[in-house]
Amino acid sequence: MKCIGVMTSGGDSPGMNACVRSVVRTALAKELTVKGIQRGFAGLLDGDIHEMGRRDVSGIIQRGGTVLQTARCLEFMEPKGQRLGLRRLNEEGIDGLTVIGGDGSLRGGIALHKMGFPVVGAPGSIDNDIAGTDMSIGTDTTLNTIMRALDALRDTASSHERAFLVEVMGRKCGYLAAVGGILGGAEMILIPEAAFDLEDVAHAVQDAYIQGKSHALIVVAEGAQHDINQVAEYLRQHEVGFDVRLTILGHVQRGGRPTAFDRLLATRLGVAAVNELLAGNSGVMVGLQGGEIGTISLEEATSRQREVKQEYLDLFNYVS
Ligand code: F6P
Question: How far is the CA of 237 from the centre of ligand 1 (A)?
């Protein structure tokens, strides 16, 4: 292998830059040529590809987002797009690819791998929904952002004696809501993995009021059975004691300086991805497995959503 490509794809996540830096510098240290592919698979199809040197990744370890930019590319989901992608890789003389991204991006990697092109994935997603890794690049930073937001909202909620509904991201996965709820001391979490009655939410808020609490914080995952507006509407129509406000954290959760955890994880995964390619392995994702860096096949990593640990749900119930 002489030349590897690196791309970030799907939703950006803090720490992707640290991973790109790690891939580039590890590959250069091993005397490979490295080419950066802009805007994920969309940039691959457009031939938006450039050689990268050490200096191209200077001063990016602390930056959120991705200097390679990213995109969600529907064209690459079709065989025609995949064949064009393979052609572009061949034209560029790239003979191995690292894809940093979430499950959709890793599926793109599977398509290339099945056509015989060497691909190694690295999990980059704030949602922490990718199987085969304890944490994805970006999740820890997002948890910190959610935690700070909940701390701030609690200040104003207590001052005004209000109930706050706070929507967090996570697509169909409740990890950010569950762990964010633990870290922020929420009264209740509403996650896609658990069905709930609006009546029970109203009771929980009423309970908090009757117990003499000065506020109630409820973290609502964006994929929860009832969305935040429905929950707010229901609470407002029923006597729950507190005035109700809602906050949607939105894309603020995706940006910001990556934490120490994410920088280290991303750096470790970048080194591992290059080593896997050099070892002749393809169709695998590198991930954090019990503190160590291991691998899982891309097929398995994308075949199911990573589950929120029951331990965290129990823990939330004990401490809330
Ligand atoms: O997968 C990351 C994520 O931020 C999800 O939590 C969210 O549902 C989605 O991306 C939002 O995507 P977009 O930025 O394309 O609106």
Answer: 31
Write down the pLDDT at residue 60: 98
Looking at residues 130-154, what average pLDDT do you find? 98
Rounded to 5 degrees, what are φ and ψ at 26? -65, -45
List the one residue out of 197, 187, 253 whose CA is nearest residue 222. 253
Identify the residues whose C-beta falls under 6 Å from ligand 1: 11, 102, 125-127, 169-171, 222, 254
| The CATH number, out of the four listed (3.40.50.460, 3.10.129.10, 3.30.1370.20, 3.40.50.1820), of the domain defined by the range 140-255 | 3.40.50.460
Which among 129, 169, 220 is the best mutation to test ligand 1's pocket, defined by most ligand atoms within 8 Å of the CB?
A: 169
Nearest CA to 106 among 9, 36, 172? Answer: 9
Where are the domains positioned within the chain? Answer: 3-138+258-301, 140-255
Q: Whose CA is nearest to atom 1 of ligand 1?
A: 11
What CATH number belongs to 3-138+258-301?
3.40.50.450
Q: Which residues pair with 6 in a beta bridge?
A: 36, 98
DSSP 8-state symbol, 97: E
Helix (H) or strand (E) holding 214: none
The candidate with the shortest Cα–Cα distance to 63, out of 254, 253, 258, 251, is 258
- For the whole prediction, is pTM greater than 0.90? yes
Residue 71 pLDDT: 96
Do residues 268 and 293 make contact, with C-beta atoms less than 8 angstroms apart?
Answer: yes
Is 103 assigned a catalytic role? no
Evaluate whether 3-138+258-301 and 140-255 have a shared fold: yes
Q: How far are the Cα atoms of 27, 43, 100 from residue 39, in angstroms, in the given order?
A: 21, 5, 12
Which amino acid, one-letter code, is at 252?
V
